[in-house]
Amino acid sequence: MRMTPMHSPVRLLAAAPVSAPVLAVAFALLHAQAVAQAPSAPGPLPAPPAATVPLPAPTRGKLLYDIHCIACHNSQMHWRDARVVRDWPSLVTQVRLWQERGKLQWSDDDIAAVARHLNDTIYRLPPPTVPRG
Ligand code: HEC
After folding, report:
1. Packing angle of the helix pair 108-118, 88-101 (nearest 10 deg)
2. Fewer beta carbons below 10 Å: N end or C end of the chain?
3. Is it the case that residue 124 has pLDDT exceeding 60?
4. Cβ(81)–Cβ(28) below 8 Å
5. Which long-range contacts (CB under 8 A, 24 or more apart) does 60-68 make?
């Protein structure tokens, strides 16, 4: 006669009532750990706002004019009816004359940059198709 063992592996597994709560706790712990390590968790700030919202930088022409010319100028001088500047060449000529008076030794690029700045802010002459000295 053969005896069937009462504690076979299959029967042990089916009869184990403790496993559900233990698994739940273990899963909760694992889950909490995963959330803490997730890259989307609150952490260091993203890129600084300056990288996404660029401020308008002053042009070279504005800087040169503000440093060397604005001392005895105001926009009134450029607006007056009897003004010398009538078109792009005469604007460039005036800028060249004034930087010579100041012994500033500007390059043609500097002169053109300041002329552009004055044109953008004050004169609003038709832009030159071929930039002249
Ligand atoms: C010492 C003071 C002084 C400085 C510095 C000076 N200016 Fe003048 N600028 C004047 C005066 C005064 C006039 C008006 C001249 C006239 O009535 O003909 C003038 C006129 C001008 C005009 C002609 C304005 C118009 O439409 O009639 C331009 C352009 C000009 N200046 C550009 C410059 C630039 C560019 C610089 C810097 C390199 C400069 N000035 C520096 C005093 C100055």
Report:
1. 120
2. N
3. yes
4. no
5. 60/110, 60/113, 61/110, 61/112, 61/113, 61/114, 61/115, 61/116, 61/117, 61/118, 62/117, 62/121, 64/106, 64/110, 64/113, 64/114, 64/117, 65/114, 65/117, 65/118, 68/99, 68/102, 68/104
Q: Which two tokens stand for residue 77?
A: 């001088």
Q: Is the CB of 97 under 6 A from ligand 1?
A: no
Quick: pLDDT tens for 24-58.
555 555 555 554 555 555 566 666 555 566 777 88
- Whether 82 lines ligand 1, by a CB cut-off of 6 Å, is no
Tokens representing residue 4 in the block:
């069937």
Place of tokens 């001392």: 71
Mutate to test the pocket of ligand 1, among 69, 99, 109 (most ligand atoms within 8 A of CB): 69
What count of residues does the chain have?
133
83 pocket-lining for ligand 1 (C-beta < 6 Å): yes
The predicted pLDDT at position 12 comes to 46
pTM of the model: 0.63
